[in-house]
Amino acid sequence: MVKIADGIRTFRCPSCDEYINDSMDSCKFCNTALDNANLSSLVEKQDNLNSAFNAANNLQIMAITAIIPMVLTLLPFIGIFALFGYLALIVILPVKLILWKTKFSNIVTDDKDYKTAKSFWRNALIIWAVLLMILIVNLAFRMI
Ligand SMILES: [Zn+2]
Fold this sequence. Notes:
Blueprint: E1 10-12, E2 19-21, H1 36-65, H2 67-72, H3 78-104, H4 112-143
Antiparallel strand pairs: 1-2
Helix pairs in contact: 1-3, 1-4, 3-4
């Protein structure tokens, strides 16, 4: 991922795909000239891509984290509290998954970070679906 430090913003060179930054007049790898108008759109595109990556990464972490209250629901006493946490995550996750899609699914790039972001999103969806099925079984057993 790209680190942004001291106001210098990093993005990929449009011609050679190496990471460069907006303090340069030309790419240090391929010498392609960088004009200001072009630069700001490239920086903006990179920022959007970084946001997509971070948001998808957070979704995957959130989905994995939801496994913890799911396991805790099996315990006596704290089980009922864990169930509320579990329910909340089961409700919030798909909302966040849809929001990610509406915000970032229109990105056109062959950047591998975007492919990784999409696989994070898919993983989060799969984990959510499994957790939802386990929740339904769990609730069914509580009602018996
Ligand atoms: Zn270049």
